[in-house]
Design goal:
The complex is a heterodimer.
Chain A (H helix, E strand, L loop, with lengths): L3 E2 L3 H16 L3 H27 L14 H25 L9 H15 L1 H7 L5 H7 L5 H34 L6 H10 L7 H34 L11 H27 L8 H32 L2 H11 L4 H20 L6 H28 L14 H24 L5 H8 L13 E2 L11 H8 L5
Chain B lengths: L1 H23 L5 E6 L3 E3 L3 E10 L9 E10 L2 E11 L5 E7 L4 E9 L8 E10 L26 H4 L1 H6 L6 H31 L1
Parallel strand pairs in B: 2-8
Antiparallel strand pairs in B: 1-3, 3-6, 4-5, 4-7, 7-8
Classes of the chains: A mainly alpha, B alpha+beta.
Chain lengths: 472, 204
């Protein structure tokens, strides 16, 4: 029998009210925000139409540097998609209770980032009408084909993994929103809840499905970014000649993913007034993970520098000179200082280890990780393969606009999700975590083992306690 | 008597000076002959022979013969040493040359000469024809289904003719097997969702 937390009814009531509040009402500021995002996306669509009309010549990409912002952003978004499902699954498997209030956000990030990231290869194709040719004529031996299947598999698995823990919360929304809610909402929650009543049989089935998915999704997530790295490592370019690109990319993905979760947590906590349930604890633990990954990333970077620098083949000399003293030096220095040193120092000192400090560290990391992907792609392609001068690449307005549109689309989908899905996994917080220490509950009854695992009715936990002669 | 003495001295002088005169005239000329196949297949090794003899046709044993080929890269063309071998008792140097480019190949056998023998060389042409792919696709690591041309004999398309008819390019079955396992798990989870709905009806 699972161990559950004692939950004061008033605390639970507050959690349910606050967790469902975004689903009940929508203010003018929300619609203004949505309007702004739609405008940015519309501008990006216009620029994309320009690209479709004139071809990829409107971008900064040419034959010598044929990958640019699109592929960089593809890797970036696929990277941050690791945040959710992978972290959520690992933390669920290890029964880390502190993360229960942020798992939903993390899983949102995964699904949305994958949806947005998967658009970039299509945009990069130029002739998007030929996309079916990839499947019709593609070769199984190509990492590009592996990538299509890996991302499709991961997106499907992540969507399932997002949906499973929402089912009890959909049921809560169905039961609690009442007849004043719009009809489409009532119908949607009725259907999406799958008739959830919290019966022991349903709980057992849901537990089994979640356990299966959390185990399967971990290797799938790792394989996705490994395959993304192979697109580079299996290309005959001096800068990509590495056997550690797989784990390097996976580590970078988790690193940027943690940063994305922290930023989203900070924003939604403030906007949706979730301060009671998303506390310094979540920021602190995720901040510790971020700090650990600064060291892992530094290790991988040093390993690349030392091994390649020791042999120093001719192309590598050019590549290193470009990164360290050439045109990419400012970005490279920022990547090290802003992406690894400063976030590490922020987490090192207790005075800066605050919610604001950790959020700043996360922003620095997220920017640094986009730059890192830029530094992999563009300087890598600048190394001449034959006796010609290295070519330059700088993104055009079309590319920047489409990138801005993708970021806006990411935010738009998250904003819409936050209005349709309970942003906190209410039932998991209630059952597995309970109130933060210091909440009004006697210490000796904080953890109990009830005979019957509580259902989802608000009084079930209290009833179970009372049946054991314990009163809160 | 004086006359006899003069003749004798002159004879001795001629005998003594002959080698020096001969040395001043240079090393003895040599002859080189080369034998190559008229045609060969790209990727095969061609047997090439060269014979070194002196002017009278006597074989020179134990001398080094270098074989060069006229090769070009972009706009530059040069004779590149591709093999070397020492001559046997018959004055024949034999070697094998890997043929790495198609078309007419011009091979030259070169004897550099020494103090007694003058250098010599001979050239012959060979027609190299394309019969098969030159380089293997594999890099040493053999994974079933990978590193194969879509219609190669070892591919699953050849093993399963029926499948090949349906999907001629299908040779990545290991990827397909992994995907099928994962998607089967997804399928079982979807079935569980239906069971959750059914459980609700039963409890009602």
């Amino acid at each position: 029998m699972a161990e559950v937390a004692y939950v004061p009814p008033a605390w639970r009531e507050r959690l349910e009210t606050r967790g469902l509040a975004p689903l009940r009402s929508t203010g003018a500021r929300y619609w203004a925000w949505i309007g702004f995002l739609v405008l940015v996306i519309a501008w990006a669509v216009y620029q994309y139409a320009t690209q479709l009309n004139n071809g990829l010549i409107v971008t900064g990409m040419r034959d010598r540097i044929s990958w640019g912002v699109y592929i960089i952003s593809f890797v970036f978004f696929i990277g941050i998609s690791h945040a959710g499902t992978l972290l959520s699954a690992i933390l669920r498997v290890t029964k880390a209770r502190w993360q229960m209030s942020v798992t939903r956000m993390a899983e949102f990030i995964t699904v949305v980032a994958l949806m947005v990231g998967a658009l970039f290869p299509l945009i990069d194709m130029g002739r998007v009408d030929r996309v079916l040719g990839l499947l019709q004529y593609g070769r199984w031996q190509s990492p590009l084909m592996w990538d299509i299947f890996a991302i499709t598999t991961y997106l499907t698995g992540s969507t399932l993994y997002l949906y499973l823990p929402i089912i009890p919360d959909f049921a809560l929304a169905r039961d609690r929103l009442g007849p004043t809610a719009p009809r489409w909402r009532r119908v949607f929650y009725e259907v999406a809840a799958l008739g959830w009543r919290g019966t022991p049989e349903q709980r057992k089935l849901l537990d089994r499905a979640m356990t299966t998915m959390m185990i399967v999704i971990i290797p799938v997530a790792v394989s996705v970014h490994t395959v993304v790295s192979w697109i580079f490592a299996m290309t005959l370019r001096v800068a990509f000649n590495s056997t550690v690109f797989g784990p390097f990319f996976v580590a970078g993905a988790i690193f940027s993913g943690i940063a994305a979760i922290i930023i989203l947590m900070a924003v939604l906590r403030k906007l949706l007034h979730l301060e009671e349930w998303i506390t310094r604890t979540q920021f602190l633990y995720l901040g510790y993970m971020l700090a650990a990954f600064t060291l892992i990333m530094a290790y991988f970077n040093l390993q690349e520098l030392v091994v390649s620098g020791y042999k120093m083949e001719s192309g590598q000399t050019f590549h290193f000179a470009e990164l360290m003293t050439g045109p990419f030096a400012p970005a490279y220095i920022y990547y090290w200082i802003g992406g690894m040193v400063i976030p590490g120092l922020i987490m090192l000192y207790p005075r800066t280890r605050t919610i604001a400090g950790i959020t700043v560290a996360a922003v620095l990391v997220l920017v640094a990780m986009w730059i890192e992907r830029f530094l992999i792609v563009v300087p890598g392609f600048r190394v001449p393969l034959m006796a010609y001068d290295a070519r330059n690449y700088f993104p055009t307005l079309v590319e920047w606009s489409i990138l801005a549109g993708a970021v806006a689309l990411f935010m738009l989908i998250i904003s819409v999700f936050a209005k349709v899905f309970p942003i906190i996994s209410i039932w998991e917080v209630v059952e597995h975590r309970g109130p933060e220490p210091g909440a009004p509950a006697p210490a000796d009854v904080r953890r109990v083992r009830p005979e019957v695992r509580p259902g989802f009715a608000p009084v079930a936990t209290a009833a179970a306690l009372e049946s054991e002669g314990v009163r809160p | 008597m004086k006359r006899v003495l003069r003749v004798l001295l002159a004879t001795l002088a001629i005998v003594a000076l002959t080698p020096a005169v001969a040395a001043a005239a240079g090393p003895a000329p040599t002859k080189m002959r080369i034998a190559v196949p008229a045609s060969a297949q790209l990727g095969e090794a061609a047997q090439v022979q060269a014979q070194v003899t002196d002017a009278s046709g006597k074989p020179l044993e134990g001398v080094l013969v270098t074989f060069t080929a006229k090769l070009g890269f972009l706009e530059a063309t040069s004779n590149v040493a591709v093999a070397d071998a020492k001559t046997d008792k018959a004055g024949i140097a034999s070697t094998q040359i890997d043929l790495r480019s198609e078309g007419t190949i011009e091979l030259t056998a070169v004897y550099a000469g020494d103090a007694q023998h003058a250098p010599s060389s001979a050239t012959a042409s060979m027609d190299v024809q394309v019969g098969a792919q030159l380089y293997a696709q594999g890099a040493g690591v053999k994974l079933p289904g990978f590193n194969q041309a879509p219609t190669s004999p070892g591919s699953s398309a050849a093993l399963l003719p029926g499948l090949a008819a349906l999907w001629p390019r299908f040779s990545g079955w290991p990827v397909a097997v992994v995907l099928m396992i994962i998607w089967s798990v997804y399928g079982s989870v979807v079935v569980t969702l239906f069971r959750i709905t059914a459980a609700s009806r039963r409890s009602a």
